[in-house]
Amino acid sequence: MRKGPRDVVESAYLQRMMLYCYLFSGSCSIYFGSQVSLWTAVGQASLDALILTLFSYLLLAYFSFSSRFKQVMTALYASGALMSMLSIPLVYRLELLSSKQQDIGLLGWLVFIIMCWSFVVMAHILREAIQKHLTTCLLLTFCYIYLSYQLINLVYPQM
Known about the structure:
This protein has helices spanning about 10-35, 40-60, 70-100, 105-130, 135-155.
């Protein structure tokens, strides 16, 4: 929480690499954490990345910080990929336990803590990017997550 997007190198190559990591880790997390096909997982992760990119672009444009776009997206993709990679083994095990109707206990709490930490990290990145209060950025992060969830469920309805 000491660093922000301003500390990220402004590089289109680095941004693209972090996008690929974000897509890969997101696809793996969705695939191993739910009972969907690999292509559905890739589609959902891609849609999430598109929503994140559009949401961030519009937010930065609204607050007149468009020049920070590459750095903000690199930071968001990198932190999202890291959080997904940390959660993949936990989510996979969680899916196995819940499919066998076994107690998830501590494992569920660990996944919840990683999700909360990811939420706070994203809000921090937005706070550093648009220079608004953390409470405002937590609300904006919640709006992004809600929007992403709703749009993904609209395109990929749950059975």
